[in-house]
Amino acid sequence: MKVKVFLKSANHDRFKQTLISFAEGVARSGDVVTLSEADHYEECDCAIIFGSWKDRNSSWHKVKRDVVSKAKNFIVLETPILGRKKVDEIMTDTWYRIGLNGFLNNTGNFNNKNRPGDRWRKIQKELGVEVLPWTDNKDGPIILALQLPGDASLSGLDINKWAYNRVISIRNISKNPIIVRTPQLQRQFDLPKIIGNVGDISVQQGTKENLIPTLRDAYCSVSYSSGLGVDSVLAGCPTVAWSPANFAYDISSKFISNINSVHKPDRSNWLHDLSYCQWNVEEISWGLPWEHLKPLL
Length: 297
What we know:
Strand order of the largest sheet: 2-1-3-4-5-11
Structural class: alpha/beta
Distance between the termini: 10 Å
Oligomer: single chain
Largest sheet: 6 strands, mixed
Shape: globular
Number of strands: 11
Order of helices and strands: EHEEHEEHEHEHEHEHEHEHH
Number of domains: 2
Helix content: 25-40%
Number of helices: 10
């Protein structure tokens, strides 16, 4: 199998080094792998890229768009799902979500169905991930999570319009307070439009520090494809995950109409499967994620 790692898909030297580590892992598995400095797709059986792709003019987005449009198969490394560090412009995590032909819950193949609990125990121990009991705050606020406008996980969705529509639909069936929570990275939102004339609604600037306390005090959360959906389930705050792209989708309530009787299922199997979506740098260099995904090619 001919594997090619596209180094220019990374927008930071640390991420480029992670791609080099992935190439080392592929070579350890006995497969032919080359490092490419090309700014466009080059023929191979499987391309390796770093990060999501957007319709922007930066060199890393250009090469990724070309790879995604032309490659037979590609593997993409993205931010982790469990145990994420503080969100920053350049993330500092040493674990990566690694999927075949996509990075979202409904686009990537992670070969992670019906998995045992070994990786969950490893992640829980190494990253200190807590699973808190389900809350029962009947009169608590409903957290509506915004996302970075133009984020790749939105697939072109206008997050301001989506949030406004969700505020209206929530208020039509619930009297609970609504908190519109902005992402940890500060961006411009049309907050007056989102809030409209709805009563008992406020805005919270999201931070790493106020995330868990906010979720623990809430009745439930509502998100599109935000990682907050996963954070919410871990914190014991029931969630409505709007998009199948959301990694909390399979364990959440699906529609606002269910918001007065949100789902609180057992989370064990979901955590076991989710843990097979992400790998640390050492595992990457040893070829574990490559061996895990190679049977799908």
